[in-house]
Amino acid sequence: MKIALMDSGIGLLPAAAAVRRLRPDAELLLSNDPDGMPWGPRTPEDLTGRALDVARAAAAHRPDALIVACNTATVHALPALRAALEPGIPVIGTVPAIKPAAAAGGKVAIWATPATTGSPYQRGLIREFAAGAEITEVPCPGLADAVEHADPDAVDRAVAAAAALTPPDVRALVLGCTHYELVEDRILAALGPRRRPGLPPIAFHGSADAVAAQALRRLGAAPAPGAAPTGTLSVLLSGRPGPLPAAALDYAAGRLLAGAPAPSR
């Protein structure tokens, strides 16, 4: 079983690591776009073109499924990607975990890129799935870029700015950008001191585990976390074979993936 994941950069690491935990025997192909990143500031048409190039580069390696491990690409390019690749290759998008976060009601914050925050797409998810919750949308300018470059000082500055916009009594926090799941510990550290005494810990809702599980369902494959760890890892950098980006090794998900061998040629 070969599963490809795509993103402009290392935001695909959490989903890739989640797939690896569910199926240690799966071949993983990571398709990044260092020549065109970041995707967020691009127009929807330009972003869709870049996403199609990255997806087609992955498709040339005949994966069994493709995970679009990027919220922004899912918002703007998912229909085009599915039109280009399905039914031959199932394409799984990444949706912010608003539905499970809002299920219990109360106050919920959604951290996302400025391009996603307030977008018709995100507002539609809120209307559909979060009618019983009090939602605060929090834009996080610069956070994805800081994570991408493994710059801890820039991460902390961006996290602090977003934390200042987050109500101190939120019950749940939706991480609406795949990059943010790589620094969940820093986000928790920033929100903790602002939290009102006596409140339970904030429930974090990322998308990586759900996306990995959905990819297996689309393939009709069951999780097998106890399978032999024979899965390989290969990387495409704007279509060119290359190594795992160095910044990936600053994160636990990247180090987990780095231990896999390259596929034999």
UniProtKB/TrEMBL annotation:
Example of a GO MF term: glutamate racemase activity
BP GO annotations: peptidoglycan biosynthetic process
Classification via PROSITE patterns: ASP_GLU_RACEMASE_1
Keyword Isomerase: yes
Protein name, UniProt field: Glutamate racemase
A Pfam family: Asp_Glu_race
Alphabetized Gene3D superfamilies for the sequence: 3.40.50.1860
InterPro entries the record matches: Asp/Glu/hydantoin_racemase, Asp/Glu_race, Asp/Glu_racemase_AS_1
Keyword field contains Isomerase: yes
Keywords on record: Isomerase
Organism per entry: Streptomyces filamentosus (Streptomyces roseosporus)
